[in-house]
């Protein structure tokens, strides 16, 4: 049975929470990768920053739906969610744009589970962790390479 440790990239390109978003974009483009794990000084996984998180910054500012009754304004969406969207759109640091506590797998996770996560949850990049430390990363290409070798 093929597991994460058999296909993961062990020499992982990472960024920190304090990395400028513009630097992270350059890293993604230069390295031709979809996502980059965000780690602390001890290698602990803090989040993941993907191209889609950065493309989000180009989104138009959403106008929250409201309902007016008896001269009172009632928002139909969460103000917390709207605030989070504004912060993500205006992000200067990776910590403001990344997905915190991303879905991850362990080195012993079977490739079938990893493929299911990618397909069902629309993930393109999945961190591999041992304990809380980053051990590797798996992208869609890593799964496809298994098809070629069979």
What does this molecule look like?
This protein has 150 residues and is α+β, with helices and mostly antiparallel strands. The protein has a single domain, classed as CBS-domain (Roll). It has seven helices and seven strands, in the order ααββαββααβαββα. The strands form three sheets. The protein has a three-stranded antiparallel sheet. A hairpin with a 2-residue loop joins strand 6 and strand 7. The protein is globular and about 45 Å long. The protein starts with a helix and ends with a helix. The mean pLDDT is 84.
> Do you know the CATH topology?
CBS-domain
Overall CATH architecture: Roll
**Which homologous superfamily in CATH is the superfamily?**
CBS-domain
The spatial strand order of the largest sheet comes to: 1-2-5
Which regions are unreliable across 5 or more consecutive residues at pLDDT < 50?
none
The percentage of residues in β strands lies in 15-25%
CA-atom Rg in angstroms: 18 Å
Distance between the termini: 13 Å
Q: What general form does the structure show?
A: globular
What percentage of residues falls in helices of 4 or more residues?
A: 25-40%
Largest sheet: 3 strands, antiparallel
| Mean pLDDT figure | 84
Number of helices: 7
Q: Structural class of the helix and strand makeup? A: alpha+beta
The total beta strand count reads 7
CATH first level: which class?
Answer: Alpha Beta
Task: Please indicate the count of domains.
Answer: 1
- Topology as a string of helices (H) and strands (E): HHEEHEEHHEHEEH
């Amino acid at each position: 049975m093929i597991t994460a440790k058999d296909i993961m990239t062990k020499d992982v390109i990472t960024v920190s929470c304090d990395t400028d978003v513009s630097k992270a974009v350059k890293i993604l483009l230069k390295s031709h990768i979809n996502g980059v794990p965000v780690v602390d000084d001890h290698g602990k996984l803090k989040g993941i920053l993907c191209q889609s998180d950065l493309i989000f910054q180009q989104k138009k500012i959403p106008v929250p739906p409201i309902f007016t009754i008896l001269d009172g304004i009632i928002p139909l969406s969460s103000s917390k969610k709207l605030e989070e969207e504004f912060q993500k759109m205006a992000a200067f640091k990776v910590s403001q744009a990344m997905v915190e506590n991303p879905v991850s797998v362990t080195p012993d996770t079977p490739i079938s589970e990893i493929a299911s996560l990618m397909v069902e949850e629309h993930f393109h990049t999945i961190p591999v962790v041992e304990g809380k430390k980053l051990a590797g990363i798996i992208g869609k290409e890593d799964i496809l390479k298994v098809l070629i070798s069979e």
